[in-house]
Amino acid sequence: MATADVAKPDYAAQRKHFIFTDEHEQLRESIRRFVIKELQPHADEWEETTFPDWVFERMGELGFLGLDKPEQYGGQGGDYYTSLVLAEEIAHAHCGGLAMGLAVQTDMAMPPILKFGTEEQKQEWAAPAIAGTKILCIGITEPDAGSDVAGIKTRAVRDEATGDYVINGSKTYITNGHRAHAIVLVTKTDPATTTHDGFTLFLVPMDSPGVIREKRLKKLGMHASDTALLAFQDVRVPKSAVLGTVGKGFYHIMWELQGERLIGAAGCVAGAQQVFDRTLQYAKERHAFGRAIGHFQVIRHKFADMATKIETARQLVYTTAWRFQNGEYPVREITMAKLYAARISVEVADECIQIHGGAGYMQEYGIERSWRDLRLNRIGAGTDEIMLDVIGRSYGL
Ligand SMILES: Cc1cc2nc3c(=O)[nH]c(=O)nc-3n(C[C@H](O)[C@H](O)[C@H](O)COP(=O)(O)OP(=O)(O)OC[C@H]3O[C@@H](n4cnc5c(N)ncnc54)[C@H](O)[C@@H]3O)c2cc1C
After folding, report:
1. Which end of the chain is more exposed for a tag (fewer CB within 10 A), N or C?
2. What predicted TM-score, i.e. pTM, was given to this entire model?
3. What distance in angstroms lies between residue 183's CA and the mean position of ligand 1's atoms?
4. Residues 74-100, buried b or exposed e (16+ Cβ, 10 A)?
């Protein structure tokens, strides 16, 4: 066999995935430069203080909050992959709470406004949210109902005399809840409903009389984000605050959750890759028993396992995103991607703590923070158990 016929593995090849074009890669570069220069240096400080609102304004100014949003509202009009690029690159900030607060704005609260909203609602809320001058949050979860969305109790009652709605209830664990200018609120408008009809979305300004930002909730991770307990006491909103169709809010929010889960899965892969890369570096530098710890077979195999899981999750996210971009509504695969990416991200972060030894347990190295931040993903946007149920039911079980 001639030497030229011997194929050498090209481990260092940096070939981009086929869903991405050169334009996506340029966008990736510019987001990464911004994140490393302007956000990452503040990561430790924001763990203590939560990230400041200027981040929204700055990112709006750079066009990063509307990458895949329509140009008529100030967006860049890009495809879904541009949103994936943002989710991947924001991980370089090493600040899960920041990534989550931004994703609530771009991929959770904004999409239902753009899909179901009136022209006035899009101009009033989506356009400034894209510009970063207004901040949004989304309220589904309540103290007595999380996974069981249909079990929510927040009521919106129509005042027949004026046509207004009067809202009473509470929402909890609401990301951006303390800083938001408006909330996409899930309510029940038909108390007697026994089906998924009878729920309605509202776009409620957070300075409306009767909206009370009760408590800033303390949590295991995602410290850079604010998480609120909110109360709604006789909050009166006009009919024009209804988002979408009266009675169809449950279906609207289930649609929203698909985008939230897919972007969450992309964030998990990116978070896992970050913590892997930092740990790989550590394993090459840290010595024990006369050699770099990465050269012990048991540690090498941990990296092999982690890399295989990350790559598997990434391919699942990319293939699902490709189907989504091409007009399909692949709920089963989105659910699989969310479940798998969340699980492996926590496994990877946990293994990275182990490889760091005592350093992994120390705040200074930031590895324990990654574990705490990533742990949320097995709960938020639908728990592992709910994801398994959605997948199982999709087979007619
Ligand atoms: C940091 C953070 C930020 C969040 N941000 C937001 C936000 O911005 N907006 C928002 O609306 N919500 C938000 N959430 C809420 C989040 O989506 C919910 O916590 C999640 O959906 C789970 O609901 P729950 O906490 O009520 O748990 P529960 O529904 O009470 O579940 C408890 C346990 O029971 C299991 N379980 C429940 N039902 C079933 C079933 N049918 N089969 C098997 N097991 C089941 C669950 O999997 C879980 O293990 C946030 C949560 C956190 C922690």
Report:
1. N
2. 0.96
3. 19
4. bbbebbbbbbbbbbbbbbbbbbbbbbb
> Distance of CA 201 to CAs 112, 113, 155, 222, Å?
9, 10, 11, 27
Give the residue from 154, 174, 182 showing the smallest Cα distance to 219: 174
End-to-end CA distance of the chain: 55
> For position 298, what pLDDT does the model report?
98
Active site residue 364: no
> Distance of alpha carbon 270 from its chain centroid, rounded?
12
- Expressed in angstroms and rounded, the spacing between residue 338 Cα and the centre of ligand 1 is 14
Pocket test for ligand 1, best of 170, 173, 372, 391 (most atoms within 8 A of CB): 173
* Contact present, 135 and 181 (Cβ < 8 Å): yes
Q: Taking CB atoms and a 6 Å cutoff, what residues make up the pocket around ligand 1?
A: 104, 137-141, 146-147, 173-175, 219, 222, 227, 376, 379-383, 385-386, 389
Taking each helix axis from N to C terminus, what angle separates 96-103 and 249-285, rounded to the nearest 10 degrees?
160
Which residue has the least CA distance to atom 37 on ligand 1? 147
- The residue from 256, 260, 351, 368 that is catalytic is 260
What average pLDDT values come out for the chain (397 residues) when binned by 10 residues? Answer: 74 84 97 98 97 98 98 98 98 97 98 98 98 98 96 97 98 98 98 94 98 96 98 98 98 96 98 98 98 98 98 98 95 98 98 98 96 98 98 98
